[in-house]
Amino acid sequence: MESSPYQTKQRLMAVICLSAFVFFILFARLFALQIIDGAWLRAKAADQWTRDLPIIPKRGDILDTNGNVLASSETAYTVYVRAKSVTDARFVAEKLSALLGLDYDAVYAKVSDRGVSEATLKRQVDGATADEIRSFNFNGVYLASEPTRVYTYGDFLSQVLGYVSSDNVGQTGIEAYYNKYLKGIKGQILTQSDLVGAEIKDKEMIYVPGIDGLDVVLTIDSVIQSVVEDVLRLIMRAHNPKSAKAIVMNVNTGEILAMGITPGLDLNNLPRDDIQTLMDNGRNTLLTDIYEPGSTFKIITAAANMEEYKKGNPSAFSPTHVFGNSNFRIINGSRISCWTSHANGRHSNQTLAAALNNSCNPIFTDIALSLGVETFYDYLDLFGIGENTGIDFAGEQAGMLVPEASVTAGDLARIGFGQTIAVTPLQLITAVSCAVNGGLLMKPYLVREIRSGDMTAARFTPSVRNRAVSEETSRNLALMLEDVVKNGSGKQAYIEGYRVGGKTGTAQKFENGHIADGKYVSSFVGFFPANRPEYAAIVIVDEPEGQHYGSTVAAPYAKIIFQQIINYKNIKPVS
After folding, report:
1. Is 328 helix (H, G, I), strand (E, B) or coil?
2. Contact between 116 and 197 (Cβ < 8 Å)
3. How many whole angstroms separate alpha carbon 457 and alpha carbon 316?
4. Cβ(262)–Cβ(229) below 8 Å
5. Mean pLDDT across the stretch 357-376?
């Protein structure tokens, strides 16, 4: 039976539609393979047909503010093997085990294991050994350059510089915080291989160079840092404390000129098998650990009172106000005493300046209570107490401050003279610098510049966080603190011909919620010249043996630091 023209036309249309559908499917698949998944498939193919060796870039140097190199990199090598390309496994294993000081059987296992694409034999191989390996021209054995970190002075500035891992990645300190700048970008060597992973002879190698890391320039002055570290060693020998630490800061910019802690670490010989020692001696406790500042905190209380008096607050005490002669106060049934009995008229009829000289606790209790919680806490905030300073370093702590909503009269009274409050040494020196530099709270910083050769990638400049007190208050307070060094508890920091100001502190330590018998933190925070402050230093001695007052354990060593800065900078005496 013949089909009608209409049926023939239907069959033809069906064939055309089916063909069109098949072509559409093929076209869609090709589009997906070439356009949508093309890049991924090309990369996968390249990965299957090539083998790559990493080229580790040179890690950037770390330098002090004068351009002295503190951390640098030397070239070492990593030895790799691709067993599928090795032609004589026994000969290769024999020579490499001898050259690299490795066990023959362990090396042979790697150079003969064709089930593994690539294996590392040894890292951190020196240049001479690498040259010997090259001389054999082994098939399947490769060398990749790998910088190794070298610290110029070993244990110098160790908690600030930090250290890197075996993979050259920053782990602590500046090495970690600025790792993204220091590390550079890896390169690679690409070689073509066959289906089983063996290298194809006479095929061109593709060399993709790495990009070296950037250099980091610190605000640290290595001359002042050396002075600080020498002084800390003197303290350790003289007083056998648990630790000694110090900071030197430019009060006007927030630049950290020196930051030392002892004991420290030899960065070229880290105790990686002793994690506890590595952690204990590697932490920058000047900004990670908190302590009760004691009488050094009276500077902040005095500044708050003076500024409020200038503003006309009737709760503040005038510079000529004479405080009561009692050597104690009773606050909420608790007795707060002066460190001396006031016998024979000692500490009698004191003004604020005399109270700073004599470090009389009850008077600073009076000031804090008179100003009240709200006003006093406003000043704590203005001086950055209870919050991070913002320094360019990981792990900074904010300190410990009783919440304003729950502070009691007893708490407030003790905060006034540096108890019931905990700060980091960095917080305190930053706050004191603010109190005497004209009233500006600066953001402390450790890095001045990031650069590549002569080209600057980033530059860091002083940053003002806020104004805490007026220039007039700051100037008058600095003069009072100068008198503390000339005639008061800070006399052992006095330098003939130079205007040094400061305040001592001696705080009992608390352990398990109770005062630890015979354990003290002795400190001194000072600055010079008092009439136009530039340099500030804080010295903290944790658990000294024998004498424990800040006036005898810390102040004399701050004097040495200041004297050496004077010599280094050739600062002339006051005429």
Report:
1. strand
2. no
3. 49
4. yes
5. 95
The Cα 101–Cα 509 span in angstroms is 52
Instruction: Please give the C-alpha separations between residue 439 and each of 299, 369, 376, 444, 533, in angstroms, as whole numbers.
Output: 13, 23, 16, 15, 12
Residue listed under structure tokens 């001045």: 448
Contacts of residue 397, Cβ cutoff 8 Å, sequence gap at least 6: 287, 288, 289, 290, 388, 424
d(CA 417, CA 364): 6
Choosing from 72, 222, 295, 551, the catalytic residue is: 295
Three-state DSSP class for 360? Answer: coil
Q: Residue 396 in contact with residue 288, Cβ under 8 Å?
A: yes
The arrangement of strands across the sheet holding 243-250 comes to 256-262, 243-250, 535-542, 514-528, 501-511
Q: How far apart are CA 542 and CA 545, in angstroms?
A: 9
Q: Provide mean pLDDT across the span 482-505.
A: 96
Tell me the three state secondary structure of residue 250: strand
Residues 224/69, Cβ–Cβ less than 8 Å: no
Joined tokens for residue 180:
């993204």
- Residue 53: closest CA among 146, 147, 184, 168: 146
Q: Residue 211 pairs with which residues in a beta bridge?
A: 185
> With helix as H, strand as E and coil as C, how does 47-69 read?
HHHEEEEEECCCCCCEECCCCCE
Dihedral of CA atoms 473, 308, 290, 561 in degrees, nearest 10, equals 10
Structure tokens at 144: 């990749």
pLDDT for res 567? 97
In tens, the pLDDT along 278-321 reads 998 999 999 999 999 999 999 999 999 999 999 999 999 999 99
Question: CA-CA distances (angstroms) from residue 438 to 165, 365, 443, 509, 532?
Answer: 43, 25, 15, 33, 9
With H, G, I as helix, E, B as strand and everything else as coil, classify residue 141. strand
Among the listed residues 419, 396, 424, 398, the one whose alpha carbon sits nearest the alpha carbon of residue 407:
419
Distance of CA 551 to the CA centre of its chain: 29
**Could you tell me the end-to-end alpha-carbon distance of the chain, in angstroms, rounded to an integer?**
131
How far is residue 456's CA from residue 557's CA, in Å, rounded to a whole number? Answer: 38
- Known catalytic residue at 4: no
Beta pairing class for 334-337 and 328-331: antiparallel
168: left (phi over 0), alpha (psi -120 to 50) or beta: left
Strand partners, 450: 216, 458
Across the chain, which distance is largest between two alpha carbons, in Å? 141
Query: Nearest-CA neighbor of 227 among 571, 563, 561?
Result: 561
- Lowest mean pLDDT across 207-221, 278-292, 420-434, 478-492: 207-221
DSSP per-residue letters across 514-574: EEEEEEEEEEEEEEE-TTS--EEEEEEEES-SS---HHHHTHHHHHHHHHHHHHHHTPPPP
- Contact assessment for residue 233 and residue 274, using Cβ atoms and an 8 Å cutoff: no
Query: What whole-number distance in Å separates Cα of residue 295 and Cα of residue 507?
Result: 8
pLDDT at residue 3 is higher than 90: no
CA 101, distance to chain mean position in Å, is 38
The predicted pLDDT at position 210 comes to 79
| Percent helix / strand / coil, the chain, rounded to 5 | 40, 25, 35
